[in-house]
Amino acid sequence: MSVALAVLVLFSTFSFTVEKHYCGDNLIDVAIFSEAKSCGMEIESEPKLKKTCCKDIVDVIEGQDELQSVTFDDLDFPTQVFLRAFVQAYIVNFESLPKQIIPHRDYVPPNLIRDIQLLNDVFLI
Asked: How does pLDDT run across 10-57, given as a tens digit for each residue?
């Protein structure tokens, strides 16, 4: 449970960029953490002369900058009482049971030398 919460905090504070390269209306490349590859149709000469059909879109996804930490003393009194009662009731459910006593644990049955029912041909039906 604590590992899952630590991973949740890590990903909520993590920020990254997503770059997309379009040529006309077609998506050519999508890159996370790096630059998107171009289609090679960009004009290397003066950009004021001709308008290019390619465009780059950069989406920045920002994580949280500040995390709020709350201590038990910051909670209001009814919430503190509820939490203490809940924890106490939860702990009581996990108390160990008394050891069970097995009365015939050391009993060794007698050795059978002869089967008396077979000798007398008497069988219980």
From this structure: 888 888 889 998 888 888 888 887 887 877 776 555 555 556 778 888
> Burial level of 21, CB count in 10 A (0-12/13-18/19+)?
buried
Beta-bridge partners for 72: none
Cβ atoms of residues 35 and 19 within 8 Å: yes
What residue numbers bound the domain in which 56 lies?
2-61
Distance CA 23, CA 31 (A): 15
What are 83-101's pLDDT values in tens digits?
A: 999 999 888 887 777 888 8
In a domain, 38, yes or no: yes
Element (H, E) at 4: helix 2-12
Q: Which residues pair with 61 in a beta bridge?
A: 16
